[in-house]
Design goal:
Order of helices and strands: EEHEEHEEEHHHHHHHHHHHH
Pathway: Carbohydrate metabolism; tricarboxylic acid cycle; fumarate from succinate (bacterial route): step 1/1
Structural class: alpha+beta
Domain 2Fe-2S ferredoxin-type: 4-93
EC number: 1.3.5.1
Keywords: 2Fe-2S, 3Fe-4S, 4Fe-4S, Iron, Iron-sulfur, Metal-binding, Oxidoreductase, Tricarboxylic acid cycle
Strand order of the largest sheet: 2-1-5-3-4
CATH superfamily of the largest domain: Alpha-helical ferredoxin
CATH class of the largest domain: Mainly Alpha
Oligomer: single chain
Low-confidence stretches: none
Helix content: 40-55%
Strand content: 5-15%
Catalytic activity: a menaquinone + succinate = a menaquinol + fumarate
């Protein structure tokens, strides 16, 4: 069996005795097929029993073993050492705790800040009495077509990797966070739920429009849930619920109206429609530069060829959830 000598550079911190975090290196012989979690367990069992990390199922289901491996959040139990060595073309791997959460000790972080936000957002089924039977004698059926709308979001294992890479979650303490907002959407489209699309108001209250669509949450999710997709759909539900008086919703509507009018994005009218006179004033300097360099078109745009066909496609798309 192939073996390699691998150095694990692990970020250590014990708040009871350490003034600040530090890195400690452990070099061990790793056989092919060993995971990061198995390597950490070997170090704890044979080299340094004080090394602290969190793990439970070893099956990529509980999400508790999430750590950063060379700066990228992954499940330690699912990630093989040799694969990471090949990716980074090195014999040294840096293991660190997740970001955006307080470090309890070494690689263990405090999930409370993330989970408390989710708890306030009611991420559980509130049964609709007209659909969910009161007794167990009857079933509450969800058909495949209905399940398809939220099936992806049910794969979330609460590993918090998406939360750890979200810049908005770090800056905005009221922001719900990727996986909590994805769970709000999951129940918003569940036919058994009593609140249904009203849940979009919860997403609105927890600053879902602050998401910048960087897609980092989708990049790091070990279950490919892509919370950003759910957040975008939740935004659409909020517009349907009448929550349009905000820059984000007006920005979306400005795009939509431009396409309806001409089939092209009217960038000149976009600031006015999204933010009113304030938008014009904010974008005036760059607008003048664009006009001087011939980059700005007239605000009065002629419809493109086959504009009516585009309008029909847009209408059909709006009718598909």
């Amino acid at each position: 069996m192939e073996k390699r000598n691998v150095t694990f550079r692990i970020k250590r911190f014990n708040p009871q005795k350490d003034e600040k975090p530090y890195y400690q290196e452990f070099t061990i012989e790793v056989p092919k097929g060993m995971t990061i979690l198995e390597a950490l367990q070997y170090i704890k069992d044979n080299v340094d029993p004080t090394l602290s990390f969190r793990a439970f199922c070893r099956s990529a289901i509980c999400g508790s073993c999430s750590v950063k491996i060379n700066g990228y959040p992954k499940l330690a139990c699912k990630t093989q050492v040799f694969n990471e060595l090949d990716i980074y073309k090195t014999d040294t791997l840096t293991i660190e705790p997740l970001d955006n959460m307080t470090v309890i000790r070494d690689l263990i972080v405090d999930w409370d800040s993330a989970l408390e936000r989710m708890e306030r957002m009611k991420p559980y089924l509130i049964p609709d009495p007209e659909i969910v039977p009161e007794t167990l004698e009857e079933e509450s059926k969800v058909y495949p077509k209905e399940l398809k709308k939220f099936d992806k979001q049910t794969d979330c294992i609460l590993c918090t990797t998406c939360f750890s890479v979200c810049g908005i979650a770090k800056l905005d303490k009221n922001y719900g966070g990727p996986f909590p907002l994805a769970r709000v959407y999951r129940f918003a489209v569940d036919p058994r739920d009593a609140l249904k699309k009203e849940r979009a108001k919860i997403g609105y209250a927890y600053d879902m429009w602050n998401c910048v669509r960087c897609n980092k949450c989708a990049d790091v999710c070990p279950k490919h849930v892509a919370p950003v997709d759910a957040i975008m759909k939740l935004r659409g539900l909020s517009i349907e619920a009448g929550l349009k008086d905000n820059p984000g919703a007006r920005h979306v509507y400005a795009f939509y109206k431009s396409l309806l009018e001409s089939g092209m994005l009217n960038e000149v009218m976009l600031p006015l429609r999204a933010k009113g006179i304030k938008g014009i004033l904010e974008n005036l300097p760059i607008g003048i530069q664009m006009i001087l360099k011939g980059k700005a078109h007239s605000p009065f745009m002629k419809p493109i060829k086959d504009h009516e066909t585009l309008r029909k496609v847009m209408k059909a798309a709006m009718e598909v959830e």
